[in-house]
Amino acid sequence: MIDFLEICRRAGTGPLIPESKFDRERFFPKVMSLVKKYDIRHDLENPVSQDNGLADAIYEAAVDLIVDVGVYCTGTQRVIEFSR
């Protein structure tokens, strides 16, 4: 498991990229592809779903997102990258 100090180090050494470019080229395209891949849909009639399959799909999509895209640090304009 990664520790907090390592995350802080990565916030200062990760890939440097402007926030708008991160959002436009990395984050949003990946979110859209994961929504399709995992068939994630919002049900307005049932905002708090009891569907365990949907919960599992959302969790897997979130893990894929973090691993593939990373987390953007606005303070340093760097991407904190993670692996499984």
Strand order of the largest sheet: 1-2
- Mean pLDDT across the residues is 95
Record field, number of beta strands? 2
Give the count of helical stretches: 3
State the helicity in percent bands. 55-70%
> Rg, please?
15 Å
Please state the overall shape, judged from the principal axes of the Cα atoms.
elongated
Report how far the terminal alpha carbons are from each other.
10 Å
Q: What structural class do you assign from the helix and strand content?
A: mainly alpha
Q: Characterize the main sheet.
A: 2 strands, antiparallel
Strand content: 5-15%
Elements, N to C (H/E): HHHEE
Contiguous low-pLDDT stretches (5 residues minimum) are none
Descriptive overview:
The protein has 84 residues and is mainly α. The chain contains three helices and two strands, in the order αααββ. It has helices at 4-13, 19-37, 52-69, and strands at residues 71-73, 78-80. The protein has a two-stranded antiparallel sheet with strand order 1-2. The radius of gyration is 15 Å and the shape is elongated. The termini are close together. The model has no long low-confidence stretch (mean pLDDT 95).
